Amino acid sequence: QVQLVESGGGLVQAGASLRLSCAASGLTFSTYAMGWFRQAPGKERDFVAAISRSGHVTYYSNSAKGRFTFSKDNAKNLVFLQMNSLKPEDTAVYYCAAKAVISANGVTTEVGRYDYWGQGTQVTVSS
To answer: Any residues with CB less than 8 A from the CB of 23 and at least 6 apart, and which?
Structure first.
């Protein structure tokens, strides 16, 4: 049974940093590309960042670019999202997702193309 478990969310002030983690089990982690998405109340789930199964290629939304860093540790079945210079508009539930891929360096930004999802972790940024 595949499980993705996010952690690291919380309440912070604008300008602060958070590091989200996602622990994966029940899958061959090195064969999965990963993604982070977020969903604010009343809004659709939006793409934040993606990483290739190798961990060597990353891609970010315009809002995340330059502030967030996505990393993958295939040895420990973990991914991390380092979020710096947080803004109130970053407030949302953050979800990690996994997609089985063949390409070592491909990334996926579309919500509907991911195979597995975690339960999410709340990030709240106060002004």
So the answer is: 3, 4, 5, 7, 77, 78
pLDDT at 104: 86
Q: Which two tokens stand for residue 17?
A: 């940093």
Averaged over successive runs of 10 residues, the pLDDT of the chain (127 residues) comes to 98 98 97 98 97 97 98 98 98 98 92 97 97
Q: What is the largest CA-CA distance in the chain?
A: 43
- Specify the DSSP element, H or E, that contains 38: strand 32-39
Percentages (nearest 5) of helix, strand, coil residues in the chain: 5, 50, 45
Cα separation of 12 and 99, whole Å? 30
Q: Is 22 helix (H, G, I), strand (E, B) or coil?
A: strand
Concatenating the DSSP letter of every residue in 84-105 gives -S--GGG-EEEEEEEEE-S-SS
